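TASK: fixed-backbone design
INPUT:
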């Protein structure tokens, strides 16, 4: 309700989804396609709108909390299961960034908790259906983010080192897991094989791989990413449990013998993840890490805490932790709701301050029919206008070869006309010069409209557009 009320504007990842969801493909560039497939389905029902974006993402956020609770409930009591789920809220890449502007990270976190649920359930109560679930979450996870492969590998290796877990993983019907996972991933895998460079180049660039940079720089960035992911949760844990953290559990609160396997499983999984991350720095010369990359790998840490110290789940212990969760849930909700006004306070408007509906109205008044192709100087202005003109086809094209490729595609599809538009708050130098290398030179029209939720004295939004009728 907050998201659909505050603004018709769209942030980076949201805009990307609106444009990609205009058609179904086996792949969409640097990200696996599952999120976009689901966004396409929602857009068929609700149109390419903020409502469609918010409905999908917040459903996945809710699903993630539910799967985290189910995973926790396999080995902990109700209190522990709730706190495993609540721990995700205190991880800013999930608790805050998922509200602000995340897509694939939300999906992969949901699949992460689902995989842990399925594996723990199989060890507790071996059944063939659990292997179907394991394969399902593995396949869907790989369709969410390619980095999910590290999580699968780390969990598998850790499972092989614990006898009871190993026996359960290779119980009767084990082959269902790889079969289901492979069948789910196979269609995209065929696309990936012929588009490997497109799918991996951007991620490799973000890692800033360099043999010239110091390993200390890479280790520092890794530590920073881990602390920014787990730091708030750690503060809440230290403040809430205090001396209880360092007190070994009495026999009455220790794990029951049937669940003693879970402690080494979690310990060895986290150790393998740590070794892999260190190897990325020392062996592969990775120098940059994003906190959203750490989230799926470390989302299980709250469960590891309560397995390590089950006394924390005793009656009356850790009430402050619940207070932390409630307070930060309200803080994140307030921050998400007040984002457009924050831009006004700083006199620094962003996409959520754009007067999207007023812009659409003025374009209609200037003769734009709402059909044909929209080419924007960035994908955010293109997506925002597509949400107001759902009969159009929208492209976000910045400059250079990308712009020329977009113009070629636009000409092929522009039987309904062509709308070219830029925004002054995110200028692309010489964009119109690039346009006029293939279009007849004309004078773009200018629209000046006040930003939403900004002071009256603020510089207004300004758009340049050119409508080429069919």
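OUTPUT:
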């Amino acid at each position: 309700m907050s998201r659909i009320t505050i603004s018709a504007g769209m942030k980076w990842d949201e805009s990307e989804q609106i444009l990609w969801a205009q058609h179904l493909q086996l792949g969409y560039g640097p990200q696996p396609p599952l999120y976009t497939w689901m966004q396409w389905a929602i857009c068929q029902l609700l149109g390419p709108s903020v409502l469609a974006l918010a409905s999908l993402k917040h459903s996945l956020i809710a699903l993630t909390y539910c799967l985290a609770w189910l995973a926790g409930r396999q080995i902990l009591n109700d209190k522990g299961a709730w706190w495993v789920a609540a721990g995700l809220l205190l991880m800013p890449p999930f608790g805050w960034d998922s509200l602000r502007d995340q897509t694939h990270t939300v999906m992969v976190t949901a699949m992460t908790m689902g995989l842990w649920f399925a594996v723990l359930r199989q060890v507790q109560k071996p059944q063939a259906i659990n292997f179907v679930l394991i394969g399902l979450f593995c396949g869907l996870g790989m369709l969410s983010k390619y980095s999910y492969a590290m999580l699968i590998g780390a969990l598998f290796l850790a499972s092989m080192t614990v006898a009871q877990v190993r026996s359960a993983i290779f119980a009767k019907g084990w082959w269902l897991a790889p079969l289901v996972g492979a069948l789910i991933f196979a269609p995209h895998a065929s696309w990936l094989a012929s588009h490997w460079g497109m799918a991996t180049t951007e991620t490799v660039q973000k890692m800033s791989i360099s043999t010239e940079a110091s390993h200390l720089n890479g280790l520092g960035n890794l530590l920073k990413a881990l602390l920014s992911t787990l730091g708030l949760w750690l503060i809440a844990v230290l403040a809430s449990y205090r001396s209880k953290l360092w007190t070994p559990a009495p026999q009455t609160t220790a794990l029951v013998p049937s669940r003693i396997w879970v402690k080494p499983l979690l310990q060895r999984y986290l150790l393998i993840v740590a070794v892999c991350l260190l190897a990325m720095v020392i062996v592969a010369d990775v120098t940059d890490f994003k906190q959203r990359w750490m989230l799926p790998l470390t989302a299980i840490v709250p469960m590891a805490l309560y397995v390590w110290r089950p006394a924390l789940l005793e009656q009356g212990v850790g009430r402050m932790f619940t207070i932390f969760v409630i307070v930060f849930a309200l803080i994140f909700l307030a921050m998400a709701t007040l984002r457009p006004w924050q831009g006004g306070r700083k006199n620094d408007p962003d996409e959520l301050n754009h007067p999207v509906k007023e812009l659409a109205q003025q374009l209609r008044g200037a003769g734009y029919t709402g059909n044909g192709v929209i080419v924007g100087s960035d994908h955010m202005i293109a997506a925002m206008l597509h949400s107001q003109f759902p009969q159009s086809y929208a492209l976000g094209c910045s400059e250079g070869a990308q712009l020329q490729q977009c113009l070629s595609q636009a000409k092929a599809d522009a039987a309904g006309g062509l709308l070219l538009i830029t925004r002054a708050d995110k200028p692309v130098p010489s964009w119109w010069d690039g346009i006029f290398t293939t279009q007849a030179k004309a004078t773009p029209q200018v629209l000046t409209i006040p930003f939403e939720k900004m002071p009256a004295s603020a510089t207004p939004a300004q758009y340049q557009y050119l409508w080429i009728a069919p």
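COMMENT: The mean pLDDT is 92.
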